Model the fold of this input.
Amino acid sequence: MAMNTGAELPGTGTGPGGTDGTADDERLACGRLLSKVWESRDDGSDDPHLRSCPHCAAAVRQLDLLGAAVREASRGEREPDRDAGALTARVMDVVRLELRPGRPLPLGEREEDLWVREAMAAKALRAAAETVPGVRTGSCRIRPGESGGVPTRGPVQVRLEVVVPLVPGLRELAEEIRRRVRGAADEALGLPVEYVDVHVTDVADTAGADETYPVEEAEAHETYALEEGEGRS
Amino acid sequence: MPGDDELLAVRAAEGDEDAFEALVRRHAPGLLRLAGRMLGSQSEAEDAVQDAFVSAWRRLPEFSGRSAFTTWMHRIVVNRCLNMLRSRRPVTDLDSVPEPVAPDHVASPARAAESHAAAAELGRALSALSPEQRVCWVLRELEGLSYETIAETVGISSEAARGRVFRARRCLTEAMTAWR
Done:
């Protein structure tokens, strides 16, 4: 676009809704590019020229004027928190109608014909693991047993990822998680378990806990060398 | 707690609706505000964010967790808003742009008239921007994102993001100067 000869800023430009394709920068009468002047303003750079040049000062004033309008407008912004609850309810109405197919898992004895959806069973097993203070769970995959590469009815294999609190005795903690997961599978679901693989994906400092996941006070502050995958029970 | 997001996203991807609900509850306010700023309409913002969450639920099994859940959600909402803005086009004549939706609350009654007028004028000027300029400008000036993050969110180069923000500023400063 043409050079702007006066201190009047900005020029008529390409107008609102101008295309994005070409650079339509403007060189001020002092020789500076408008885009660079505004960038310096953003970065808070301490360029002596900017302080003394009337052309640059005029350009910066334009930007400040816009900033003031933005601040005024944002004072009137609606607080979104009060709409978020209703929105969450509407989203979940749709989500709960859309059942993910998921893997069906055999329940009960070999001769029975009872099945449970993997997501349902996983939810129960995660909840059981999280009864161990400070433990939070992520992925929980449950696979039917196999015989010669073919899924069979019978005990399932569980692979559970956990974030554990920074406490001594990690092996005991993993064992406790395993015990509770097995218990829930057996008692609550009637799902026989072949083994529970517990993978520690992270160790959380208690300082990072919030009210959703109450964590007991950690006693030790040493860092543990963790093997991923605590092996099979 | 950001680490929580990733745990919840993994669980939601495996079909845990409660985990997903926790994510929606946590991120809805910020995303509603973002969409409201991009679209200039609260009801359209609610539609955009609702659609974005439902689409996120369907796509969660593909969510690799390479980016943070919040970045991923931002991207989905921004794309939804871009499409909604594009379907509104063409609106090029400033005077033909309808009066933007007035904000519902103004903090100080003494400033009400001035504030309302400035907000209305800014809203009008914003609707005259191209959708791409508007989105980049909102992410930069109102959400305070870096050009790199804007580039990643919108799926363009950071130079392009810089260029769009600059052009948006030019259009807006012109409009606001003319109004004053």
Remarks:
- The two ends of chain A are 73 Å apart (CA to CA).
- Residues 1-7+23-77 of chain A form one domain.
- Chain A touches chain B through 69 residues (CB under 8 Å).
- The first helix of chain A runs from residue 34 to 43.
